[in-house]
Structure formats: C-alpha cells, structure tokens
Amino acid sequence: MEPTRDYPLFGGAFSATLPPGAIDISDLRPVPDNQEVFCHRMTDQSLIVELLELQAHVVGEAAARYHFEDVGGVQEARAVQVEAVQPIPLENLALRCCCEEAWVLSGKQQVAKENQQP
Fold first, then answer.
1. Where is the signal peptide (predicted)?
2. Are 10 and 36 in contact (CB under 8 A)?
C-alpha cells in the first residue's frame, strides 16, 4: 500500500498529509487560485482546501459552519451535512502569533461533478 505523503499547499504556505492514491486535480484541469483540489483514483471522494474571506459577522464555530454551508450553496449541493466542529488548540498552529482561534469542520456535501446534472 502506498504511504501517506505531506503535500505543499498554496505554494508551500502550509502543507497537508494526503492519503494514499490522492491525485492533484490541478495536474488535470484548472483550479481556482484559492483552492487546492485532490481526488482519489479508486473512489468518488474529493478533498478541497479553500482559502476563504473573513466574515466579521460570524465567529468561532458559527464561522466554520457559515463557510461550509456557503460553499455548499455556491456549488449547488444536494446535501450539506456537518458531522463535527472542533477547536484547534492554538499551540498546534504555525500561525498562533496572528490567530485568536482556529476551527476544523468535518462534513459531507453531495455535489454534482463537472458536466453532470445536480
């Protein structure tokens, strides 16, 4: 089995550990500058890392949910399901000098792929 690998994101600003079989979609088609998109060669699963604009009217856990649901709306998702929202301890962040809080949201969105009907 192929091992996981660290992959630089956004020109090396930070990195992510990707599962075996992950393919960088930007090698296949254009991807917006604010996204890093990966798919798995054997499944229908995708991983999208997206840089989002600060929305001052929502904070904390609500901000994580807001952005996840907003992306689902823009993508015309058939289903948007939040599974968990958890704070990231600041001592675990490389940017702790300039972050007051950080959150990770796990969820699922059912989105039609390019050229497919929703």
1. none
2. yes
How many other CB atoms are found less than 10 A from the CB of residue 72? Answer: 20
User: Taking the mean position of all CA atoms in its chain, how far away is CA 72?
Assistant: 12
Q: What is the domain extent for residue 3? A: 1-51
CA distance 44 to 27: 18
Q: Tell me the pLDDT tens digit for each residue of 80-101.
A: 999 999 998 888 877 777 778 8
Task: Indicate if 45 and 76 belong to the same structural domain.
Answer: no
Give pTM, 2 decimals.
0.71
66 shares a domain with 44: no
- Whether residue 116 lies inside any domain: the answer is no
Are the C-beta atoms of residues 111 and 71 closer than 8 Å to each other? no
Distance CA 13, CA 71 (A): 22
Q: pLDDT tens digit string along 32-72?
A: 999 999 998 888 788 888 888 889 999 999 999 999 999 88
Instruction: Please identify which residue in the block is written with the tokens 């390019």.
Output: 114
CA dihedral of 25, 20, 47, 31, whole degrees rounded to 10:
-10
